Amino acid sequence: MNAIDVRGIVKKFGDFTAVNGISFTVETGEIFGLLGPNGAGKSTLIRMLVTLLTPTAGTALVNGFDITKQSDGVRQSIGVIAQAMTSDLELSVEENLIIFAKLYGVPRPRRERLIDELLEAVELTQWRKAQVKNLSGGMRRRVEIARGLVHEPRIFFLDEPTTGLDPVSRVAVWEMLAKIKRERELTILITTHYMDEADKLCDRIAIVDHGALKALDSPIKLKASIPGRNTLEVSFSATPPGWTELLERLPGVESVVGEDHVFRIGTTLGPATTMAVMEAAAGAGIAVQSLSVQSTTLDDVFVHYTGRALRDALQEANPLDRGPLLRRA
Amino acid sequence: MGRTWAIIERELRRFRRSPVLIAISIVMPIVQLVVLGYAFGGNVKHLKLAIVDQDHGVPAIKVRELASAASSGAHTIDTVDYADQGQAIDDLRNGRVNGVLTIPPEFSRRVLTKNEPRVALIEDNTDGFVSVALAGTLGGMLAAYNQPATTARIASATTLDVVEIYPYVPYLQYLLPGSVVMSIFMMVMIGGGIIFIDDKARGLHEGYLVTPIKKLELVAGFNISGTIKAVLAGMFLIIIGSVIAGIPNAFDPMRLLRLFVVVVVTAFALISLMFLLMVRVSDPMLPRAVFGVLNTVLYFPSGAVYPQQGFPGWMQVIAVADPFTYAVHALKCLLLKNTGFTAITADLTFLLIFSVVAMSAATALFKRTL
């Protein structure tokens, strides 16, 4: 049985369709990522799976329980980290875990053992009596990770867990999740708009944009699925007329995107194209100011499947993005 | 039930760490009790009364002597002699005096001939309290003036004997029931309504909605914890307020028990009302805006500061539906008259029915999903 089985799920808010008939499965034990910009429908999708929102159409099975008809069964077997920080600021770290353990009906002896283990796993043992409001954002997230696992769920949902955290805290959260995954039998579904997060953590990634599923596979296969295995980023001192067309004719080149003397060249023959670029620049009497060779990134994958860069999508204003306060149609 | 208790435990732990909330809910009603009680509860004194004697006869002198006696005794009035009526009235209009007692030129002759002797009180009627006090004092003074020199051994006219069955109740004590209900209401609105909506706006509720807690358990948890907090505020006000206001036998155990019952029922009624009003609200500004209006609409029509018999019809309609009315009445019976449960059965019945209806409606409206 798959851990999660999403079947043609749809969510509309009035005339706006946030999720448009998405279907996929998540295998037991894998880390599955939903990657896409804000407003893509990731949070709406995950909220339906954790029974915070009711689908307009379609359904999903989470741990074998139907999200619309067996929501109690779903809730008992999942842990959730919401996008907004939901830990109680006035309570201590330990109190946050105790209250949640009681909400899940965890018996006292098991509860105390689990809390000790989880505090150690998230490296907050020495902070157990501290009020959450005195902790940093990264530490607060770790409290919420521990809180989400206090009842030993089989599936863990994380909605943009590192958004708003500094780079050091982000890495700490990744390491925490990887460590917990190693120690426990856990299926994880994570939504993110960070490519590096999806690339680093996930066994498989679903690319979501405008409420639709654009691609789904492992990071390696996704990158391999698009033209060009390397990307050269080159800046020139000058660009004579016809320079873009000249670059396109170089060996192995499959795509050229240039602006203001800086060019991104997708190629299947990284070394050969690099040599050819240097020779072409020398022959035209222009200097190569900088050159870097990158492997294909998920941004390139995103561009291929959606027609725009993930960072550009993030910068676009989305007037219909309702954020974490999304309520009803 | 365990999940309900988890919510109650969470709320009470947070409450314990909110000293500002506790202070606001208790200090403000105490301050209001003391300030309003002393601002409205005193007897009006040292009102300046101008006396214009245009007669100067013996009966006029007697009237002036009685006015001086009233001034020396209860100090309600301070008399000031004026030779000129016009000057006296000018000073009245300018606020230098509060009233002008004019003894007209033919007063003594009319007294002697028993031909409708009159004196005139010209008063500044923009302040009703002052004008009532002046008219009352001078009316009493003239009643004393009209007493015959000798009286019959057996009175033939009907007299009124006033018997007060309870000890004198200063206005401070009269205000105490309303202040207790006010403290319960403030704890309900701030510790219940405002914090509830703030948590919702910050997304805190999502953390609880994804757990297996049932809708009824969540609602019961929020409301029972809100009731506990409100009861603590109410009982604290009763104890401190009784000492401040000088309630006799304030710590009588049976009375405290009855008061506790009324406070619990009142707290539950008010928290039910708050929950019904806030159950579908998401904007944190709304409870703050509504709080002040509700405070006025519920508190003043309840009879907490002035008898309802003096209200216009539309305000009496509000009073009938207002849970404050029944709570204030019940607390007045217990605090001011030390009655038993019989006197407050109707009040408790209304409050319980109100609670059940409001809580049922709020539970039906409460959304288990976003």
Task: Outline the low-pLDDT stretches of chain A.
Answer: 317-329
Structural class of chain B: mainly alpha
Radius of gyration of chain B (Å): 28 Å
Strand order of the largest sheet of chain B: 2-1-3-4
Mean pLDDT of chain A: 87
Q: Strand share of the residues of chain B?
A: 5-15%
Distance between the termini of chain A: 33 Å
Q: Please report the first level of CATH classification, the CATH class of the largest domain in chain A.
A: Alpha Beta
CATH superfamily of the largest domain in chain A: P-loop containing nucleotide triphosphate hydrolases
Query: In angstroms, what separates the terminal alpha carbons of chain B?
Result: 24 Å
Largest sheet of chain A: 6 strands, mixed
At CATH level 2, the architecture of the largest domain in chain A is 3-Layer(aba) Sandwich
Our count of helices of chain A gives: 12
* Beta-strand content of chain A: 25-35%
Number of domains of chain A: 2
Overall geometry of chain A comes to elongated
What is the strand tally of chain B? 4
Describe this structure in words.
The complex is a heterodimer of chains A (329) and B (370). Chain A is of the alpha/beta class. Chain A folds into 2 domains: 4-223, Rossmann fold (3-Layer(aba) Sandwich), CATH 3.40.50.300; 227-295, Alpha-Beta Plaits (2-Layer Sandwich). Chain A has 12 helices and 14 strands. In chain A, the strands form 3 sheets. A 6-stranded mixed β-sheet of chain A has the order 6-7-8-3-9-10, sandwiched between helices. A 4-stranded antiparallel β-sheet of chain A has the order 2-1-4-5, covered by helices on one side. The longest helix of chain A has 17 residues, at 167-183. Chain A starts with a strand and ends in a 14-residue tail after the last helix. Residues 317-329 of chain A have low confidence and may be disordered. Chain B is mainly alpha-helical and 370 residues long. Chain B folds into 2 domains: 7-40 and 169-365, no CATH class; 43-145, abc type-2 transporter like domain (abc type-2 transporter like fold, 3-Layer(aba) Sandwich). Chain B is built from 14 helices and 4 strands. In chain B, 39% of the residues are buried. The A-B interface holds A 47, 50-54, 72, 75-76, 78, 80, 82-88, 90-91, 95, 99-100, 102-105, 131, 147, 324-328 and B 2-3, 5-7, 9-10, 13-14, 17-18, 201-204, 206-213, 282, 369-370.
